[in-house]
Amino acid sequence: MNNPESEMMTLRELAAYLRMPEKTLYRLTAESKVPGFKVGASWRFRKGEIDRWIERQETREAD
């Protein structure tokens, strides 16, 4: 049942995946610019949603 589409990532893992500072990612997530949700006080991200978000960002930049 290990579906890469629904694989969960922490803020630290996502920051490494996106190669960006955790502080910047936290700010973008808090501003709803990156798709994520809170579990208690911690942010979580679905890898599939992040990959789709990246594709949308690439499409916007190409316009």
DSSP strand count: 3
Shape: globular
Report how far apart the termini are: 38 Å
How are the strands ordered across the major sheet? 1-3-2
Main β-sheet, in a few words?
3 strands, antiparallel
Number of helices: 3
Q: Give the second-level CATH assignment, the architecture.
A: Orthogonal Bundle
Describe it for me?
- By secondary structure, this protein is α+β, with helices and mostly antiparallel strands.
- The chain has one domain: Orthogonal Bundle (Multidrug-efflux Transporter Regulator, Chain: A, Domain 2).
- 52% of the residues lie in helices and 17% in strands.
- The protein is built from three helices and three strands, in the order βααββα.
- Strands 1-3-2 form a three-stranded antiparallel sheet.
- β2 and β3 form a beta hairpin.
- The chain starts with 7 loop residues before the first strand and ends with a helix.
- The mean pLDDT is 91.
Short summary of the structure?
The protein has 63 residues and is of the alpha+beta class.
Main attributes?
3-stranded antiparallel β-sheet; single chain; Multidrug-efflux Transporter Regulator, Chain: A, Domain 2; 52% helix; globular; 3 helices; alpha+beta; 3 strands; 63 residues
Which helices and strands appear, and what pairs or packs with what?
Layout: E1 8-10, H1 11-18, H2 22-30, E2 37-39, E3 42-46, H3 47-62
Antiparallel strand pairs: 1-3, 2-3
